[in-house]
Design goal:
Number of strands of chain A: 12
Strand order of the largest sheet of chain A: 1-4-5-6-7-10-11-12
CATH superfamily of chain B: Class I glutamine amidotransferase (GATase) domain
CATH class of chain B: Alpha Beta
CATH topology of chain B: Rossmann fold
Oligomer: heterodimer
Shape of chain A: globular
Number of helices of chain B: 7
Helix content of chain A: 25-40%
Number of helices of chain A: 10
Strand content of chain B: 25-35%
């Protein structure tokens, strides 16, 4: 049986790990390469690096970081943040990233998903979607959740699958930073709509929350940052609890 | 001391034909103390002690790249241990349903798509079992490995490891000096590194 995955997310700014609470205030949580290795050793199934200040100048820095991570860790990792072209993806994959996550660029130019899937294979294309509820309707948001769009979350989920996304990383902006649990209802709906893996993100505060995301939210993987960075939850303990609840897990 | 020296003198070529994340394989070899040479040069590949045939992406376009460099003719004739990884393994089979692609015909099996009822790609960590050959020496049954794929080789006479995703399928194949693994040993934590190391030591056992 395929296991459910636990994925620490490292938000990167200027080559350092940071985590925003609701994406606004930033706290330093260490050196990314060191942290990546520690997570790999502690039982993380995968890692995600999001360069939250991705600009033209960041490209080289990020490629160098990807190379250092790939040389060090022996588990897969995804890189995202400001990726908007085939060239961006090519550089990251060539430096050793296993997958890339695209977000705003896919909303602005949906054809990018088709192009990337055709060139690199859908298995390495993760489409990240930030959404929050506006007047009871789940709407896709851009620029780290700051800019709302008119796009319905569930329509977009369906479209990115059809265009060739290999996985969907769904972040609920309503839940992110709250530590009150994942958006399980929306997650379950997404998971049943599509036939590609769903990574849950936003709201992890306890081990129970992760279990809920897998059982109620039907997620294939769950991602979190600060609860891991500040050792509020140890991955080993989390996986033990998942196992006790009958969730298939790699220990 | 002598082991270290032996590692350095071992020539490992990673076939570089523009398909996939070969940097990760090179890094994994470095962590094990080996230097991997990336090459698509026939003489370089033929002179290697070990050959790694990677591959990520779509079967027909990867096969086209192999053909354009003549590597499709070279690989089946290699005499040293060859390890196909992921799409590399699939291309070593007779054919693939993906893009209706004729493979290298090393393994006598056809690669097909997973059932539509399953989530595809099969991404993540799954167990390998019924492990055979020295490739898996010291690797426990039911160990977890990391996989990313939408197509698979059914169980056949050349199966040396199985994995269960809706169906029991070939997680590894072997014929003579040719080995193929569906999973990514370079991304499969310590179990993956053990399997890679076993491959790198294959001919030192005789």
């Amino acid at each position: 049986m395929l296991t459910k995955r636990i994925i620490p997310c490292l938000d990167i700014k200027d080559g350092r790990t940071v985590k925003g609470v609701n994406f606004v205030s930033l706290r330093d949580a260490g050196d990314p390469v060191e942290l990546a290795e520690a997570y790999s050793n502690s039982g993380a199934d995968e890692l995600v690096f999001l360069d939250i200040t991705a600009t033209e100048q960041k490209r080289k820095t990020l490629a160098e970081l990807v190379r250092k991570v790939a040389a060090t860790v022996n588990i897969p990792f995804t890189v995202g943040g400001g990726i908007s072209s085939i060239e961006d993806v090519d550089i990251l994959l060539q430096n050793g990233a296993d997958k890339v996550a695209i977000n705003s660029a896919a909303v602005k130019n949906p054809q990018l998903i088709n192009d990337l899937a055709a060139k690199f294979g859908k298995q390495c294309i993760v489409v990240a979607i930030d959404a929050k509820q506006v007047e009871g309707k789940w709407l896709v948001h851009l620029v780290g959740g700051k800019v709302p769009t008119e796009i319905d979350l569930f329509d977009w989920v369906k479209e990115v699958e059809e265009r060739g996304a290999g996985e969907i990383l769904f972040t609920s902006m309503d839940h992110d930073g709250t530590k009150a649990g994942f958006a399980n209802e929306a997650l379950a709906k997404i998971s049943e709509m599509v036939n590609i893996p769903i990574i849950a993100s936003g709201g992890a505060g306890s081990k129970e929350h992760f279990c809920d995301a897998f059982i109620k939210g039907k997620a294939d993987a769950a991602l979190a940052a600060s609860v891991f960075h500040f050792k509020e939850i140890e991955i080993k303990d989390l996986k033990q609890e998942m196992k006790e609840k009958g969730i298939e897990v790699r220990i | 001391m002598s082991i270290e020296k032996r590692k350095v003198s071992e020539k490992v070529v990673i076939i570089n034909y523009g398909a996939g994340n070969i940097q990760s394989i090179k890094f994994a070899l470095e962590r094990l103390g080996y230097e991997g040479v990336l090459s698509h040069d026939a003489e370089e590949i033929k002179s290697a002690d070990k050959v790694i045939f990677p591959g990520v992406g779509e079967a027909s376009s990867a096969m086209k790249k192999l053909k354009s460099t003549g590597l499709d003719k070279l690989i089946p004739l290699l005499k040293q241990p060859v390890l196909g990884i992921c799409l590399g393994m699939q291309l070593m089979c007779n054919r693939s349903e993906e893009g209706d692609t004729d493979g290298l015909g090393i393994f006598d099996v056809d690669v097909i798509h997973f059932e539509k009822t399953l989530k595809v790609p099969h991404i993540g960590w799954n167990r390998i079992k019924e492990l055979k050959t020295p490739l898996f020496e010291g690797v426990a049954e039911q160990k977890f490995v990391y996989l990313v794929h939408s197509f698979y080789a059914p169980v056949c006479a050349e199966t040396i490891a199985k994995c269960d995703y809706g169906v029991n399928y070939s997680s590894a194949l072997n014929k003579d000096n040719f080995y193929g693994v569906q999973f990514h040993p370079e991304k499969s934590s310590s179990a993956g590194e053990k399997i890679l190391e076993n491959f790198l030591k294959l001919d030192l056992r005789s």
